[in-house]
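Our working data are protein records whose layout never changes between entries. An example says more than a description, so a record of this kind follows.
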Amino acid sequence: MKIHAYLLCFNEAKIIKPVLDYYSGFCSKIFIFDNLSTDSSVDIALSYPMVTVIPFDTNGKKNNAKHVCIKSEEYKKFSRIDGKFTEEIADWVICADMDEILYHPDLVGVLAKYKSLGITVPQV
C-alpha cells in the first residue's frame, strides 16, 4: 500500500525532523509545500530521500485560502496518474500542517481495512 503525505511548511526547523521521522516510517513519498522558509527547514527536509520540496509564496502573509487549496486540491496533481513529481500512484494521501500528526496505533492496518471496505475519505 502506498501512502503519500503532503505537509505545509514555513520555518519549521525546530519540529520538522521528528515529524518527517514519523511520516517516513510508513509513507513512501512526502511532499513538503514550503512557503519560502528562511531557516534550515528545506535542507532538513531534503536530507530524507522520499521527500520532494515544492515551493510556494504568499508574499509573507498568512493566506488561509492558499493553505486550504493545497490541502484539498494540490495532491491531485502529484499522487494520481500523470502526476508531476511521482511515478507512483498513492492509495492514500495525508494532507496536514507540519505540526499535525495523524496517529493511530495501527494506522497502516486501519487504512488497509478502509480500502478493503471501499472507504475513500475516513473521518479522523
About this structure: Residues 49 and 118 are 31 Å apart (CA to CA). The radius of gyration is 14 Å. Residues 107-117 form the longest helix (11 residues).
